[in-house]
Every structure is written in structure tokens, then in C-alpha cells.
Amino acid sequence: MASVSTAAAVPAFARASRADTAADAGTGSARALANFKLAVNGRDHQLAVDPRTSLLDLLREHLALTGTKKGCDHGQCGACTVLLDGRRVVSCLTLAVAAQGRAVTTIEGLANDGELHPMQQAFIDHDAFQCGYCTPGQIMSAIACVNEGHAESDADIREYMSGNLCRCAAYPNIVAAVRQAKPVMKTASRD
Amino acid sequence: MQPFVYERVSDWAAATQAASTAGSAPASYLAGGTTLVDLMKLDVMRPERLIDINALQDSRYGRIAFGQSGLRLGALVRMADAADHPDVRHRYPVIAQALQLAASAQLRNMASLGGNVLQRTRCTYFRDVSYAACNKRNPGSGCAALDGINRTHAVLGGSDHCIATYAGDFAQALIALDATVDLASADGARTIPFAKLHRQPGNTPDQETTLRPGELIVSFTVPAASWLRRSLYLKVRDRQSYEFALASAAVALDLADGAVRNVRIALGGVATVPWRAVEAEAALRGKALDDQTAMAAADAAFAGAQGHGGNDFKIELGKRTLRRALQQAAALEI
What proportion of chain B, given as a percentage, has pLDDT over 70? Predict the structure, then answer.
């Protein structure tokens, strides 16, 4: 029991560091870790990771920000969508080292003092999910969709949200949620 | 994923110098990474060094410029930025549409124009290293697609060694509009017609372009022309959005009193390389554009097409796609 609680008390960052060492040992060569800074949800992190680490794995495995989901890991499903300097990208095809010096926003960075982002609230109001696995990616993508000016009609929303697959097929409710959040986001940005 | 050394460069000279350093390990340039990182995860691409050129986006090669010679698109412009640019949409609709109908909003935010034209085929035998036979991935090993599942494969420009489809859309617009490509390497700069960038598979499907080792695309130039405003990109696919073309057509028309004064046509989803349909253009020039001449042009475009079983349908689909694209272009109010 004691060992379990000790393990649980080890910070996520330390666990990740051990994984790096193991990965390097596995390749049989002592390759240097990449050292760089990254701002995630307004907080600066000094990182040392294998250059192969995707931004997605960095968030989930190194920073314990598991809200961003791994679906296909090949840029086809959109579950891993985050904002990089405000633009939506798939974090699975973004090398973490290549994102250095830039600002990352994940689903964990949306709520403000416990108050949900209008898009989060809209997804709840419209029941815009079933299993919820694609939802963080849908919400990040939907916020960018509105900010880009690509949510002007239902057809636009469907087209510009097509990079986010929902296997539960909550699509009609997702469109409704984006439609609800759009004017709220605009009002909020004027305040 | 094979380990690699990551290098970040801050100017073009440093980039091409890094790539050409004698005796150094094989390098790939990293821009958006949407093809490269994907294929590195699959072990299809195994560069030992990555030269990250994204910091060069702030140079003129990250910009869109309109001049007397036409439109210049920097290689590090992102697909989304060119697709959304009001002047590109208005003056070069076929370019904006080809970009906007490709990939997803996230991928278009990431992918550079230079990287986009170099994207690799979606042939599943190429992407899956558990198949030994792929002449593109492993020269001399054979082609699993010839007698395999080849529904999405090419009917134009194939060989006995490879029938993998060129997957892009933007390249069709560039080749139709007589674009040129500006290249840079440690040996200097040169400009080539876009039509000379890609190589048909022939006996060497592993050699996809005429780029020299370490050479980098820095920009594209699309000349001003009378047929640009009446241009469009029509893409036919299994899903309405976020899918590669089964057949597509880039069409640009200069009409005078219903007759074709000039026309530019390229086909996507059906060929091994970006495909300029010069036979179809010749069939239309000087003629009135109607159902009959559009059909004759489509027949001319696919006269040399060869199906391989699963993709036989693409010949008829490709013809109908071109016919519809021509008719839609003719009907445009400009």
C-alpha cells in the first residue's frame, strides 16, 4: 500500500522523464533530449524531451493535461485539436520541439475561474456529445471555427468542422451548439 | 519512429547549407509536417535529420504578393491563408477552391504550400510497411496495387511499376495555370515550370520529383491571364468533405461569344502526377462550348486511360467530372 501511494505521489513530470530515458535506451544511442520552452494555457514550461515527442504526447504524458485526446494519431480524426498561437492544429502531427516558443491552448485552458467558455456551455446545453471522447477536440475546433469567421451558416459549420469526426454521430447537436455559442463569443469578445 | 536530430534554421542559406552538408546523414525539411510526421510514425519515411524551416515564414517566402507578372505564393504560406485570401479567391478562384476543398481546417492551418505539392501518395500499400511489394518505397520490390485493391489508384500516367495516385489538389490548379516554381539550394537558385516538378513513375517510381538533393521550394508564380476569373476546381469524392479526390478537374476558361478563346485544364485523383489535359484543351480551342464539345474534350482527356479492375469506374467518372467542370465554368457570372 505504501509503495502505491508513493508512486501516485510522484509528479507526472518525473514519470515522464523516466519514460524519456527508457526510450533513449531502446534506440541504443545516447541522443540528446531537446530542451525548449513552451507556454501552455498561459503557463510557461521548461521541457526536456525526445525530439520525436508529439505535442499531443507532451501534453498528455509529460504535462498530465489529458483533456486533449488521442484518436487516430495520424491527423485524420481531430480528437487532438488544440490552438497554437490561436490557430487550430492537430497536436498529433505537431512535433513538440517544433512548437517551441509558441502559445498552446487546450481544453483545460478555456474555463475562466470556474466559468465555462460559451462553447463548452453550448455543448452541454445541446447535448452535443454521447461518449465524449471527441468532445475536447470538437470544442477547440469549434472555437477556432467561429473566430475564423467560418460559422456563418449551418453548411459552413459542417464544412469547416469536417476535420473532427464523431463516431457517436452527434453532428446535428454539434452544429446547434456552435450556432448558439457564436453570438455569445462575439458579445464576450466585445466586453 | 526512427530517432532523428532536430535542427532549426533562421534563414534560407542556413537551411540549404544544413541539408547539403557533405557526409551528413539524410535530411528532410520540416514545414507543416502533416505528411512527413505522419509517414515517420508509419516508418515509411525515416530521415535522420529534420531541418525545421518554419522560422522562415516571416521572410518574403511566407507571403502572398500580386505583381505585374502575376501572383507569387511563398512556399511557407499556409494552405488556409491562401485559401482565405480575398484577392486569391476573387482573382484566382481555382487556386482558392483547390486549397479550400483539401484536407481539414486544422491541416490547412498547418500545411505549407511548398509541402502540399510534395505530399506523398495515399496508396495503402505505400503507407503500410508490412507489404513488401512497393516500388515507390522499396525500389525493385514490385507493386502490390496492380493486382490488389486499387479502387483509388490512377488510370493516367501509370506504369507496370506503380499506379499510385498523386493525392493533391492545389497542384492541379498550378499546372493548369502554367505556374513556375522557384527553387533554392546550396548551389544557387533556379526556376522551373511547375509541370516539370513531378515525374511520372515509369521504371523509377521512387523518384517522384526533379528536385535535386537538398533543394527547397521557395515560391510559386502564377502568371496573370485572361482565363483566371472564369476558373474553378470541381472535386468528386466518397464523402462531401475532408476526403481525397476520386476525380477532380481544374478548369480555366476564356470565352468570347460562347466560343472558347483559350482554356486550361488539369485533372486530379485519376493520375500518378499533377495532370495537364492538353488534348482536352486542344479539342475545345476555337469551338463553341456545349454538351457535345465538352464530351469530346473529356473523351480526349481520357483517351489513353487504363483501368486496373477496381479503378475502372474512374475513367467514366473522370470524364463526367471534367464535363461538369467545363459546363459550370461556362455558366459562371463574372
Answer: 99
